[in-house]
């Protein structure tokens, strides 16, 4: 599907070219995968359990290395895990977001400004001093997103961030990310197996048995999945 970004010859924010990966030679997880996510858009990667979605996201994040092929992603980028407890490491909300800024050599005032700006963007400024353990699942995911915003990430990767959330909180989170992409010009790639989430993205990929078998307009892709 051609996009305005491609028509203007702007390079995509995320590129995967002919990626192959397997934990062993006899069990390939990804086979000659190809996808491009246009800069400044919200795309989803759809597939059943075991299709290779999370593995592909980890390849993009550099957490594992492909057997062959090429991966390129705009930097800096953030990664939001399925379980936010795996990435929120400090005792309070403000401290956790500030922890991600340690390598940037900012002053105390600059760190404080970054933390408050990021919390405001996800509508949780009032929770700056709240203990992490006192947060709901949806709030924890939004704090993880705020951590990426505080680092001024150009791209955010989401690994099934609504998997542990109730239906109402699920939709609130995907709507929040949709708004952040539009307002802040972010690029987002969101892994999911929930068809209803396709209502909020700009485009989608369908991954099946380690291969991207379809891509393009979300509603057309949803109809294709429902017809099978």
Structural Rg: 18 Å
Oligomer: single chain
Structural class: alpha/beta
Total strands: the figure is 9
Unreliable stretches: 1-7
Determine the strand fraction and express it as a percent band: 25-35%
Number of helices, counting only DSSP H or I runs of 4 residues or more: 7
The overall pLDDT average reads: 92
Largest sheet: 6 strands, mixed
The largest beta-sheet arranges its strands as 5-6-7-3-8-9
Give, in order, the helices and strands.
HEEEHEEHHHEHEEEH
The percent of residues in helical segments reads 25-40%
The separation of the N and C termini measures 21 Å
Described by the principal axes of the CA atoms, the overall outline is: globular
Describe the structure using short key phrases.
228 residues; alpha/beta; 6-stranded mixed β-sheet; 7 helices; 9 strands
Describe the structure.
This protein has helices at residues 4-7, 53-60, 93-99, 108-121, 137-150, 167-184, 218-227; strands at residues 14-24, 27-37, 42-46, 68-73, 77-80, 155-159, 187-192, 203-208, 211-216. Helix 4 packs across helix 5. 33% of the residues lie in helices and 26% in strands. The chain is of the alpha/beta class. It is globular. The protein has a six-stranded mixed β-sheet with strand order 5-6-7-3-8-9, sandwiched between helices.
Layout of strands and helices, then pairs:
Layout: H1 4-7, E1 14-24, E2 27-37, E3 42-46, H2 53-60, E4 68-73, E5 77-80, H3 93-99, H4 108-121, H5 137-150, E6 155-159, H6 167-184, E7 187-192, E8 203-208, E9 211-216, H7 218-227
Parallel strand pairs: 3-7, 3-8, 5-6, 6-7
Antiparallel strand pairs: 1-2, 1-4, 8-9
């Amino acid at each position: 599907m051609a996009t305005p970004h491609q028509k203007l010859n702007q390079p995509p924010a995320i590129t995967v070219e002919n990626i192959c990966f397997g934990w062993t030679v006899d069990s390939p997880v990804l086979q000659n995968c190809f996808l491009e996510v246009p800069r400044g858009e919200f795309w989803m990667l759809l597939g059943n359990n075991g299709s290779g979605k999370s593995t592909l996201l980890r390849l993009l994040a550099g957490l594992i290395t492909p057997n062959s092929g090429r991966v390129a992603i705009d930097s800096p980028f953030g990664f939001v895990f399925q379980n936010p407890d795996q990435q929120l490491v400090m005792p309070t909300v403000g401290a956790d977001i500030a922890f991600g800024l340690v390598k940037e050599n900012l002053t105390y005032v600059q760190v404080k400004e970054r933390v408050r700006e990021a919390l405001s963007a996800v509508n949780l400024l009032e929770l700056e001093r709240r203990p992490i353990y006192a947060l709901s699942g949806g709030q924890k995911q939004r704090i993880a997103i705020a951590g990426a915003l505080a680092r001024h990430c150009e791209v955010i990767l989401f690994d099934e961030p609504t998997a542990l959330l109730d239906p109402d909180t699920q939709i609130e989170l995907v709507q929040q990310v949709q708004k952040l992409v539009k307002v802040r010009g972010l690029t987002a790639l969101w892994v999911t197996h929930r068809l209803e989430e396709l209502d909020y993205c700009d485009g989608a990929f369908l991954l099946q048995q380690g291969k991207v078998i379809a891509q393009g307009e979300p509603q057309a892709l949803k109809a294709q999945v429902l017809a099978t």
